[in-house]
Amino acid sequence: LIKKEDGRQKFNCITTKMSDDESSKGCRLLFRSKEKVEVFDIVNKEDGSENSNAGKGVCLAKGLSSIHAVHPDGEFALIHMNGLGVIRRDLNGATQDSEDKTLFFEGSAGVQLMDFSPNGGYVVTYERWSAEDNKNVKVWDSGTGKLLCGFPLRNLKMASWPAVQFTYDDAFLFHLANSEVHIYPAVEARKENPRYSAKIKGPLASFSLPETSTPTSAPAGAYNVAVFNPESKGKPARVSMLRYPDKLDSSSALVGKSFYRAEDCSLRWAPKGDALLAVTSTSVDTSGESYYGSAALYLLAINHLQSQAIAEPVPLPNNNNTVHDAQWSPNPNKPPCFITISGKMPAISALHNGQTAQPLFLFGNAHRNTVSFAPHARFINLAGFGNLAGDMAFWDQNKKKIIPRFMPGSAQAIAESVNAACTTMSGWSPDSRSFFVATTSPRMNVDNGARLFTYAGNEITNSQPWNNENYHPDKLRAVQFIPAKFGTYPDRPQSPPPKGPIESSAAEEKPAAVSSKPAPKGRYVPPAARRAGTSNSLADRLRAEREAKSASSVGKVTAKPSVVGMSNAAKTRTPIGMAPPAAKDPNAKSKNALRKEKQRAAKAAAEAAAAEEERQKQAAAAAAPVDPEKRAKKIKKMLKQIQELKQKDPNTLNDDQKKKIESEQSLNDELSKLGL
């Protein structure tokens, strides 16, 4: 709640006092539907009344569009209109609908993918390859719309897109071509036929560049790059962190890690550019524990100033072998850390140290598979989207607690979890105070629309400036917050909770014993369930049990318990009258080792039995009587083959053929003994 000096109050989705300059910086949402592209200002009213501007956003373009891209600083947007091409729309100060459809990229009607460079100076687009225009990956100047150069790409793999990437300062261009990475200075990219100045030899499946750089990551004028070599001819896969221009060979890599069972690899950089997470995955889980395959997580980190480097697997809670998500904290001004969600459902979420990979804090077990950090990294959203029910939890990373939610106009806390079912897109606002979820087509062709939540999880309903009914049933294609430069908005803590109820009715304060009206009759409630807020139903009991288990696995990580939340005393506790378990032998083999040993013994026994059976067959064949005529016929055939071999060049004969010629005398002797 904000009370201005003139006495007016305003609920701005940002509930702490700000300066006039800060309060004027509103966040904006871009909606792209089948009919038009719109931008809405996020304005929320305290009293919950309807917004008079609902559904009156600024229209950037009318008609069917396929893709869009927004400048990293939120200055303008590029929109691809079907059958026309890419047009440009300025976002700063856009207050009126636009009917202009002037092309910004000439000849861009076939564009299917579009991405900005980290600094926003270039745009990379992809079109379907054709013999007439084989340079289907094109680089454009984002300021003038001029086509600079192009590269051929026959087979597109989304895991390796964009195939052309720029360094964080747009000084160099890296291009993946023929399993190699070619490096071009930016001035070469402005030529029709650019020439690369260096290359990283393959075979490479993908590469990734950090979007920032710090003194700890690389010296001035140098650029880190991560590459992934897939498994090949029995050799393990490998992720290497290289540096341009002096360390581009795997033998001189800054740090690297080799591993098996890695069909695909996702490379995710830390905000400082000095560490990355490598998430490897396979389509088949050999252990049989997961239908969706297996995944592993590795941390590669360097410190250029201290000449330190580590490459270790990330220790996941409970030794899980399934990684649902892993994301870095995006704020480079805070100590590096990342969050993982791993294990079987309900999965466990953990906060890890970004330099050692050790777990620091457990968020508990829940049905979650998506981590979303707010831009300032103070607030975190842990959600279960996709094939899960859509439950969400909002955490304060600084306090390591769930952000409390309160009833409107009172200090009464809300215990229910936040749910956003059928979510296909989501994201934080650049001021870290709002979070949106959207249902879009073609992923979901019913109930398209968007919902807006505060950083605490309270849904903003009456004051949203758009009307979801305009997008029913399947008209909404994409929703996105307009980005802003980091530092545009301050990092603000939670708003203070309400001190007490603002409004209370007499009926609520009146005791039930003095009520003039008799209590209405209803279904019978057992005495054990008559307390307020309790229930004896099976669903409520199961929910309470699940929440209790989840609560037991929340807190700081101080040791490595075999079960999260289980104390050492509970591990050795036995029923009364039962003998205590024998002390565990430290040299005893694990169940897995004993199982493998048993399998090896069984395999050896089977091989020995097969060898004995073969020996007995050979002995029986030797003891059986031989027909002299058949034997003589076979010997004559072999002698004929020997004569044919003698007529060939001796240098062309192999060892078996030479041995056959040497056996000629013994065959003649055997034939003479047969007397045929």
Quick overview:
This protein has 676 residues and is an alpha+beta fold.
Describe the protein:
By secondary structure, the chain is an alpha+beta fold. It is built from nine helices and 39 strands. The protein has a five-stranded antiparallel β-sheet. Strands 29, 30, 31, 32 and 33 form a five-stranded antiparallel β-sheet that branches. Strands 5-4-3-38 form a four-stranded antiparallel β-sheet, with no helix packed on it. Helix 7 runs antiparallel to helix 9. It starts with a strand and ends with a helix.
As a percent range, the share of strand residues is 25-35%
Q: Helicity range of the residues?
A: 10-25%
Number of strands: 39
Chain-averaged pLDDT: 80
What's the story with the biggest beta sheet? 5 strands, antiparallel
What's the shape?
globular
Any descriptors?
alpha+beta; globular; 15% helix; 676 residues
What are the SSEs and their pairings?
Blueprint: E1 2-3, E2 9-10, H1 20-23, E3 28-33, E4 36-41, E5 58-62, E6 65-70, E7 76-81, E8 85-90, E9 111-116, E10 122-127, E11 137-141, E12 147-151, E13 164-166, E14 172-177, E15 180-185, H2 186-189, E16 198-200, E17 206-208, E18 223-229, E19 237-244, E20 255-259, E21 264-269, E22 275-282, E23 294-303, E24 308-313, E25 323-328, E26 337-342, E27 347-353, E28 359-366, E29 370-373, E30 379-383, E31 391-396, E32 401-402, E33 418-419, E34 425-428, E35 434-439, E36 449-454, E37 459-460, E38 476-481, H3 506-509, H4 538-552, E39 554-556, H5 568-572, H6 591-623, H7 628-646, H8 655-662, H9 664-674
Antiparallel strand pairs: 1-2, 3-4, 3-38, 4-5, 6-7, 7-8, 9-10, 10-11, 11-12, 13-14, 14-15, 15-16, 17-18, 18-19, 19-20, 21-22, 22-23, 23-24, 25-26, 26-27, 27-28, 28-39, 29-30, 30-31, 31-32, 31-33, 34-35, 35-36, 36-37
Helix pairs in contact: 7-9
